[in-house]
Structures
1.
Amino acid sequence: WYCRVLQEGRIDAGLPVMLVERAYPRWTMALINSFANGSNKDVALAQELAACPLLEEWWGKLIVKRAKKKS
């Protein structure tokens, strides 16, 4: 989700970065982090996100576990 290096090199502040593809626009890093930090308790949404084939299995397990955890 973050970035993938297609060509090794140097980038500095102010240089353009191009979004090439967003396969799952619904699954943002903000949403993933809301589960990871325990602030999002929507278990059904967590399970749906965990089923995303691009998400590492351990992330999916963590997301569902944190969504189910009582505050």
2.
Amino acid sequence: SQEVQDAAKFAIAQMQQGTLVKIVSAQSQVVAGMNYALQLVVAANDGTNHLYNVIVFVPLPNSGGTMQLTN
């Protein structure tokens, strides 16, 4: 979904470890917003690929909060 892609792009930007190659898996959990648990393959600047497990929190639209990389 677009929401998962947006969460993955945000995580990659926050991690500053390279560029997104592939989203291996994604799960969502409703909280005071949405938690996205993502497994990402990231290409490092040296050309090697690394697997990362991250959680991105996306707050409710009317909360005024911003996305956060929580893990």
3.
Amino acid sequence: GARPSPCIMSEATRPLSKRPCPICKSPRQTDEYAPFCSARCRDKDLNRWFNDGYSVPGRPADPEEIAREQD
């Protein structure tokens, strides 16, 4: 038979992960900045989002198309 799916926990309630920081790859010592190891790495990640360091695959958004969808 099918096994039940594992419980999905939020980042705040999940026990400390053994996965390293996604920015600097160092081990995390606390969950305070999860999934990052520090405020510095958390802020570096946020900066990448603000400066288009990350992107979602697909064609660029058309401002006119977005405006039509909002009506």
4.
Amino acid sequence: QENFQEELGDVLSDLMLLLVIAEEEQECKPREVLQQAVAKWRRRKPFVMKEKKVSLEEERRLWTEAKQKEN
């Protein structure tokens, strides 16, 4: 568990660094990235955001439909 937490910390650190670089290069702002990520989660996985309870089969169907709409 300790190694897993350390690895997650490394991933988070890398992500934060990328966000800082992107903001400095005026590519995007961290808030915009987070807003887009939350919006995508809500579209693709409303059951994760506790907006809807579904079975595993329904989860897969909803994710597939949401993904197809984006493409």
